[in-house]
TrEMBL record:
PANTHER family, alphabetized: HELIX-TURN-HELIX TRANSCRIPTIONAL REGULATOR, ICLR FAMILY (PTHR30136), HTH-TYPE TRANSCRIPTIONAL REPRESSOR ALLR (PTHR30136:SF24)
Keywords: DNA-binding, Transcription, Transcription regulation
Gene3D superfamilies: 3.30.450.40, Winged helix-like DNA-binding domain superfamily/Winged helix DNA-binding domain
The UniProt record lists the keyword Nucleotide-binding: no
InterPro entries with a match to the protein in the record: GAF-like_dom_sf (IPR029016), HTH_MetabolicPath_Reg (IPR050707), Tscrpt_reg_IclR_C (IPR014757), Tscrpt_reg_IclR_N (IPR005471), WH-like_DNA-bd_sf (IPR036388), WH_DNA-bd_sf (IPR036390)
Protein name, UniProt field: IclR family transcriptional regulator
PROSITE patterns from the UniProt entry: HTH_ICLR, ICLR_ED
Organism placement in taxonomy: Bacteria, Bacillati, Actinomycetota, Actinomycetes, Pseudonocardiales
Residues annotated as domain HTH iclR-type: 2-61
SMART domains tied to this protein: HTH_ICLR
Domain IclR-ED: 62-245
Length: 248
């Protein structure tokens, strides 16, 4: 690493602890104030540093912009893969990863069941909003305004005897999801399969994806599926940590 680059990075690291004077920064990198000033001016021109009053320097806005970009561009599929693959290998049931974008919930990854009876789904397929556990997780995290826009265009076809019909019942379901921290599809999409889902969170605590476990009813009844909820929640938290989330 070049000496100038090393000194510049040291200055940035020091400013991360709070505003510093030119004298303080010169002392940290062990050079004359004129050399430090040249480095600071270069950093300032790229918005990595900004002057705070006459005598102090602080971190500039470019660093916050880069940090946000780095966090946003992390591939949730890659980050979540170890946790989801481990859950799939331990329990053997189908694991889905889904994300929300522009009013649609899309399956972005899938880990096939190791049991003989499997369910049909594929990466890139849309998940029905009103009757899938992953969609409930993702829509429950939307702002009130955004949710109302989605509800205004949603349809509620009855797919099974358990399918939620209408926006009033659906809103009540989303309230339960928020309160419980997980969602269920109790044979609402397909009458022979049920599912549980949990949120994967990003660095700001926002829900960036949903992970679900789907099981044919002939393999496991609903109570048996709910008994695996702690496994799913632990998997979701492990995946969230890999995506930058810091648990409280």
């Amino acid at each position: 690493m070049s000496q100038s680059l090393d000194r510049a990075l040291t200055l940035v690291s020091q400013l991360a602890t709070g505003p510093k004077t030119l004298d303080e920064l010169s002392g940290v990198i062990g050079v004359h104030k004129s050399t430090t000033l040249r480095l600071l001016r270069t950093l300032e021109s790229h918005r990595f540093v900004q002057r705070d009053g006459v005598h102090h320097y602080r971190l500039g806005t470019a660093l916050f912009d880069l940090a946000n970009r780095a966090l946003e561009e992390r591939d949730v599929r890659r980050s979540a893969e170890p946790a989801l693959r481990d859950l799939n290998s331990r329990l053997g049931y189908t694991i889905h990863l889904a994300s929300y974008e522009d009013g649609e919930v899309i399956y972005i990854d899938k880990y096939e069941s190791t049991h003989q009876m499997r369910m049909y789904s594929r990466i890139g397929r849309r998940a029905p909003l009103h009757c899938t556990a992953v969609a409930k997780i993702l829509l429950a995290d939307l702002s009130s305004v955004a949710l109302q826009k989605v509800l205004a265009t949603m349809e509620f076809p009855r797919l099974t005897a358990n399918t939620i019909i209408g926006p009033t019942a659906y809103m009540a379901e989303l309230e339960r999801v928020r309160a419980n921290g997980y969602a269920v599809d109790n044979a609402e999409h397909e009458d022979f399969i049920h599912c549980i889902a949990a949120p994967i969170k990003g660095s700001r605590g926002e829900v960036i994806a949903a992970v679900s476990m789907s099981v044919p009813k002939v393999l496991l009844d609903f109570d048996g599926l709910l008994a695996h909820l702690p496994d799913l929640l632990a998997t979701a938290e492990a995946a969230s940590v890999e995506c930058g989330y810091v648990p409280r």
